[in-house]
Amino acid sequence: MMTEKKNRLLIFDLLRIISIILIVALHVAEEKVPSLSSFLAPLLTNIGIGNIINDALGNWGVIIFIIVSGAVIEYTYGPKLSSNFNYRNFMEKRLIRIYPAYWLSLGLAIAFDKVFLNLPVSPVEFLKSFTGFQTYFQEQVLGGEINGVGWFVGLIVVMYLLYPMLSKILKEYGFPALFFIILLSYFIGMSLPVGAQNTPYWCPLARLSDFTLGIYIIQKGAYPRYETKSQVIKFLSDLSFPMFLTNFFLARMFRILPDGNYINVVVYIFALFFFSLVIYYFDISFKIAYETYRDRTINAVKSLCGFIRGTFTSV
């Protein structure tokens, strides 16, 4: 996630756009849409380096997404860790960037399922999904039944919690630490049961390698320094997370749309952009309102404390 305090780097914006394209295409391919099945079939094919990094082509979009998340966090906060880093403020900003958009996507997913698929949603399932840690409750469906990409919320929150420690370890020990973390993630991923939950896919310990690789890339300066000049690229990059949150449950519309002449694909793309924009602008409005409320509350508390202090001092 980018902030206005540092220049946007083109490489990260482009990688986020590429990753969301791969993720969306993968979820459409998993729906086995007749008019697209042959074209998108390669996305379901495993590629990689032997058995070390071997995943479906579409899933590489998730790998890229996590690597970029680690890289951008280090790019933004890395220089602050040794001086004026505030862990509480850091986590507050991270959670505000994730949860409001995610909660709105849950509401949209429930509405979509009720209106078009008539799928029931239990209160217990909703509460689990609301936390973003539904997969930790031994769900039978990866990410929960409401919004299947919800597993990412729990994963990235854990990564953010671990970030200061991971960054300091990599600064202290460099490549040997990265190599150890990659091996640890690999062996943990290999030892975890796959099953319906696909545990290695969402387990933070199995994903540490992706996140820490992003951190390491920034620390070593192994990335192009070109800044993002295009407003279109910035916008599409910012839209990637809302698209990530909406693409999976919207892909269910292929189950009810007639297949033919690619009209269903056009309808899906239109719906994806529309609901992503809804989340995008809601997210912006929420953050502005939250920051305004937060600042007013802090100022009010300071004023009250000053008044009380002045009253006792005069007495």
Molecular structure report:
This is Acyltransferase family protein. It comes from Methanosarcina baikalica. Residues 12-184 form the Acyltransferase domain. One of its GO terms (molecular function) is acyltransferase activity. The protein is mainly α and 315 residues long. The chain has one domain. Helices cover 68% and strands 3% of the residues. The chain has 12 helices and 2 strands. The protein has helices at 10-30, 37-40, 60-77, 87-117, 123-131, 151-173, 175-191, 199-202, 204-219, 231-238, 240-250, 263-314, and strands at 46-49, 53-56. It has a two-stranded antiparallel sheet with strand order 1-2. A hairpin with a 3-residue loop joins strand 1 and strand 2 (53-56). It starts with 9 loop residues before the first helix and ends with a helix. The mean pLDDT is 85.
Brief summary:
With 315 residues, the protein is an all-alpha fold. It has one domain. It is built from twelve helices and two strands, in the order H-H-E-E-H-H-H-H-H-H-H-H-H-H.
Distance between the termini: 51 Å
Radius of gyration: 21 Å
Low-pLDDT windows of residues = none
Per DSSP E runs of 2 or more residues, the count of β-strands stands at 2
Query: Can you count the helices?
Result: 12
- Mean pLDDT, as a whole number? 85
Percent of residues in helices = 55-70%
SSE string:
HHEEHHHHHHHHHH
**Helices and strands: which structural class?**
mainly alpha
Could you say how many structural domains there are in total?
A: 1
Main sheet summary: 2 strands, antiparallel
Could you say which overall geometry the principal axes of the C-alpha atoms support? globular
Question: How are the strands of the biggest sheet laid out side by side?
Answer: 1-2
* Strand residue content: under 5%
